[in-house]
């Protein structure tokens, strides 16, 4: 049986994640409040951030930036792409 959550990003009931996708309190909060589909959307957004800002995820300051963006993406006002970003799908 699949686990469902009321997704804060999609604003509806949806299939939940199988386990916390990130360590610590933020990962637990995401596990409890974010759907699998919304997490997949975040992964695409995160990839865009890494590419556009040329981040190196092993660098502590880049990881901290991505964590802040993750928090904003799910629980804040959202995480915006850089101003210069042109969506290739648009």
Characterize this entry briefly.
With 90 residues, this protein is mainly α. The protein contains 3 helices and 2 strands, in the order E-E-H-H-H.
Query: What's the N-to-C terminus distance?
Result: 37 Å
Summarize the amount of helix as a percent range: 40-55%
Q: Give me the side-by-side strand order of the main sheet.
A: 1-2
H and E string: EEHHH
- Main β sheet profile: 2 strands, antiparallel
Task: Tell me the Rg in angstroms.
Answer: 14 Å
Based on secondary structure, the structural category is mainly alpha
Oligomeric status:
single chain
Query: How many domains?
Result: 1
Number of beta-strand segments: 2
CATH architecture: Orthogonal Bundle
Give the full name of the CATH homologous superfamily: Fe(II) trafficking protein YggX
The chain-level mean pLDDT equals: 93
CATH class designation: Mainly Alpha
Q: What percentage of the residues does DSSP assign to strands (E)?
A: 5-15%
Which geometry do the CA atoms define? globular
Our count of helices gives: 3
Low-confidence stretches: none
Remind me, CATH topology? YggX-like
